[in-house]
Amino acid sequence: MATVTIKNVSKAFGDNVVLKEFNETFQEGEFVTLLGPSGCGKTTMLRIIAGFEKPTSGELYIDDQLVSGGKTFVPPEKRSIGMVFQSYAVWPHMNVFDNVAYPLTIQRVPKAKIKEQVEKVLEIVHLSQYAQRLPNQLSGGQQQRVALARALVAAPKLLLLDEPLSNLDAKLRESMRFEIKDIQKKLGITVVYVTHDQTEAMAMSDRIFLINRGVVQQCGTPEQIYNEPANQFVADFLGKVDFFKGEAANGRIVFPGMNGQSIAYDGPRTGKVEVAIRPENIYFAPDGALEGVLESQYYLGDVDDCRVRVGETLVRVIANGYEYKDLKDGQKVRMNVRSFMVFEDNGLLEQMLKIQT
């Protein structure tokens, strides 16, 4: 296990600054995810940790050793890291055993030790029975597990993963999330994981760092970032959310775009506000505060994804799948709001509210 300490790390390619003053410590045994849209700087940060890029300024430590910064630069092969890339990058002419053994072979580890370590790691990734197969005889998920085993076989202190599941189909991607997390727990290894997939980040992470345009917008547990987003970008990127313009006064928030309908509000703000509501936090209720017309619904089995026209505004409601049979397009419906977030005009989150309206 290893700690990673990042001090004021910035990275620019010419005039293009892709990372700005990243400061953080990743703790031993922690599963950290760098999350954000394409081009936000998350992969650049991972490559700096790996030693494939040098920071323009700042310092990077693995444990207490300075590995990047000033005149110091420790090459990737001396950082005790394992890395798994988006592409499987397995040798097509080598069987599974030889692919996994490759890092030990080039280090001239004794054959008996290689056999012991490869067999151990193949058991961890559930590939023992495929040791003699070639990569073209494996599924995509199995090939990705070969790449993971190869990264783990030399017992690195730190495991780096760069969007390793993006080439897999949806069902396999879901199962691999839990496999990687289980392996990380079993080994107690520190993991830094890069993805643009919010579901992956939520399912796997101890902490998430949400990055936009090279700047960390917020870091915290999945629950903290989802329920207490620091700004509207965070709220919008992580999970489903709709934003509505309102006017706070006299214990209510009135929505001009919803024909002046309103919901209860016991917060301190008055005047214009931006209200963010996650669609799972709106529910149909006969005595609901908001009234509209069900415009469309999409049955997804476990949920019914609905669109309700309220005045000039389309409101998204994610209802229980069992409600699908009782709802008809064009019917009038009433809704209540379980919880919502209030933002000021400058975009900062004022507070999280959890009230029945």
What would you note in describing this structure?
The chain has 357 residues and is an alpha+beta fold. The protein has 2 domains: 4-236, P-loop containing nucleotide triphosphate hydrolases (Rossmann fold, 3-Layer(aba) Sandwich), CATH 3.40.50; 240-354, RNA polymerase II/Efflux pump adaptor protein, barrel-sandwich hybrid domain (OB fold (Dihydrolipoamide Acetyltransferase, E2P)). The protein is built from 8 helices and 22 strands. It has helices at 42-50, 96-106, 111-124, 140-152, 170-187, 198-204, 222-227, 232-237; strands at residues 4-13, 16-26, 31-35, 57-62, 65-69, 72-73, 81-84, 158-162, 190-195, 207-212, 215-220, 242-249, 252-255, 261-264, 271-277, 282-284, 290-299, 303-310, 313-320, 332-337, 339-343, 349-354. A 6-stranded mixed beta sheet has the order 7-8-9-3-10-11, sandwiched between helices. Helix 3 (111-124) crosses helix 4 (140-152). The longest helix has 18 residues, at 170-187. It is globular. The two termini are 48 Å apart.
SSE map:
Elements: E1 4-13, E2 16-26, E3 31-35, H1 42-50, E4 57-62, E5 65-69, E6 72-73, E7 81-84, H2 96-106, H3 111-124, H4 140-152, E8 158-162, H5 170-187, E9 190-195, H6 198-204, E10 207-212, E11 215-220, H7 222-227, H8 232-237, E12 242-249, E13 252-255, E14 261-264, E15 271-277, E16 282-284, E17 290-299, E18 303-310, E19 313-320, E20 332-337, E21 339-343, E22 349-354
Parallel strand pairs: 3-9, 3-10, 7-8, 8-9
Antiparallel strand pairs: 1-2, 1-4, 4-5, 5-6, 10-11, 12-13, 12-15, 13-14, 15-21, 16-20, 17-18, 17-20, 18-19, 21-22
